[in-house]
């Protein structure tokens, strides 16, 4: 009888632990599902509309690089303005990892963001394929190396343009700029457009592994695909660490600077 009581108690403890674990998972999902869903939708729109701007027009000549770059810049602007207050509108695994390095996201939420972004990219490009004719959809928006450059040169370009993107992202996150976030969507959107114009002729200007994943998946073209993961992650992570530990001021330092500046202004007026 004592043995049976012991077994029942052990089973009860196991059930209690399972219930607590499930309740924690449910609570976590209830807290974060809107953010995760926003990341999926924003990345979906990035691929759908950004790549739509790259589709050729029959009989109408246009600058593919310029049109696609401006298109991506504007949809990034739109997404940040729409979803920025919900999830941060990362739309990019590299930005998400940088946010985790800065302490803005937990590891669990960062992983959920990454999955949502990759799923959104695949769904977004798939919708473009479904909405386009076969001749238009084939190969549109693939990020491929320019054959005139070596693979190391292509990798280097992806590292540096992603680094530039993360510099402005980190500056927007910098607490010293917390009063200047209203124009963040414009700043980052224009930066994306400019970097795309610069890098597209060489690498396709990915700066975003999810952005390259969608077209590669639907076209089953994985040529040098590793470059569009390694390059952005190396450039993004190094920049996030550099900015955080070299230029980022702590809150107490910011307040000290503000007090010093204020006292100097008062003395000047006197």
Observed structural traits:
Glycerol uptake facilitator protein, globular
Description:
It is a single chain. With 270 residues, the protein is mostly helical. The protein has one domain (32-250): Up-down Bundle (Glycerol uptake facilitator protein). It is 77% helix and 0% strand. It has ten helices and no strands. It has helices spanning 2-52, 64-87, 93-102, 107-131, 134-137, 151-173, 184-203, 209-219, 227-247, 251-269. Helix 2 packs across helix 7 (184-203), helix 3 (93-102) runs antiparallel to helix 4 and helix 4 packs across helix 8. The chain is globular and about 65 Å long. Residues 259-266 have low confidence and may be disordered.
**Share of β-strand residues:** under 5%
On the 0 to 100 scale, the average pLDDT is: 86
Helix content: over 70%
CATH superfamily: Glycerol uptake facilitator protein
CATH architecture label name: Up-down Bundle
User: How many strand units?
Assistant: 0
CATH topology: Glycerol uptake facilitator protein
Distance between the termini: 89 Å
Order of helices and strands: HHHHHHHHHH
Structural class: mainly alpha
Write down the overall geometry: globular
């Amino acid at each position: 009888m004592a043995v049976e009581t012991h077994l029942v108690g052990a089973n009860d403890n196991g059930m209690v632990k399972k219930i607590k674990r499930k309740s924690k998972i449910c609570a976590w999902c209830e807290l974060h599902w809107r953010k995760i869903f926003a990341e999926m939708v924003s990345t979906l729109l990035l691929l759908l509309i950004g790549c739509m701007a790259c589709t050729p027009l029959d009989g109408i000549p246009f600058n593919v690089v310029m049109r696609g770059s401006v298109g991506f810049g504007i949809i990034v602007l739109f997404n940040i303005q729409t979803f920025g207050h919900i999830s941060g509108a990362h739309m990019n695994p590299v930005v998400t990892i940088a946010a985790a390095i800065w302490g803005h996201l937990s590891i669990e939420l960062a992983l959920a963001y990454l999955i949502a972004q990759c799923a959104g990219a695949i769904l977004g490009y798939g919708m473009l394929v479904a909405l386009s004719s076969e001749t238009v959809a084939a190969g549109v928006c693939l990020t491929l190396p320019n054959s005139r450059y070596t693979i190391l040169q292509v990798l280097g370009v992806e590292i540096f343009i992603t680094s530039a993107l993360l510099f402005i992202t980190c500056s927007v996150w910098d607490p010293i700029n917390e009063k200047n976030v209203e124009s963040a969507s414009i700043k980052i959107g224009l930066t994306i457009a400019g970097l795309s114009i610069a890098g597209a002729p060489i690498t396709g200007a990915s700066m975003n592994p999810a952005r390259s994943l969608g077209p590669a998946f639907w076209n089953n073209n994985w040529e040098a695909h590793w470059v569009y993961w390694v390059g952005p992650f190396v450039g993004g992570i190094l920049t996030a660490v550099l900015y955080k530990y070299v230029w980022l001021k702590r809150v107490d330092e910011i307040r000290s600077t503000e007090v010093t500046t204020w006292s100097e202004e008062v003395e000047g007026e006197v």
